[in-house]
Protein: Glutathione S-transferase family protein
Amino acid sequence: MNITLHHAPGACSRTPLILLEQAGADYALRIVRLASGENHTEDFRRLNPRGKVPVLVHDGRVLSENVAIAGYLARLFPQARLMPAAQDAWEQAQALSWLSWVASGVHPLIFRARMAGRVVEGEGAQASVKARALEALGEQLRTADKHLAENEWLAASHWTAPDAYLFWATGRAADSGLSLSDLPHLRAHAERMAAQPAVQRAIAREKSALETGAPA
Structure:
């Protein structure tokens, strides 16, 4: 089994990085430096014409998008319990619902808050876009905070793929300027995720790859 993850530090591709670590997978990590435009090179565009991370390559086959990669890894490594058990159709559907929500309801708002300059021109307009994005982001994350007030994890009795994706989103939302002071259950969820060995290994591997400048 030959697996390579193309990942940009800080980007949402940290989600499958965490999942691969949880699965105990033997994989190669390729760092993509978005700031220098490596995602727009001819070589990368051959992998993903959209010019985005994450990109997972398994035995020469290419897969992109977090929701698809999470589902694929869950089936590839069932022992890792990256998604609820297949026989529990309801829990699986709930996990997919949460994954889709982060991808379509939260992630785009993080982009607008962080990259307002790529949405509109002019400082005033950009400030308005960021402010509106942060307001909407807070509203979205409050739904997760309410759910987590009564549940330790999003979709199962243990953490699964949507928890990893939400963990990334929570950190990026805070980095973008969103106060988490009124989201105590979301903060606690992020702390629980940060304490997971797979998360710590993923962050350490990313750091090592950045420091050495070589594939990890």
User: Anything to note?
Assistant: The radius of gyration is 17 Å. The helical segments are 14-23, 42-47, 66-76, 89-114, 123-148, 161-175, 184-194, 197-212. The chain has a mean pLDDT of 94.
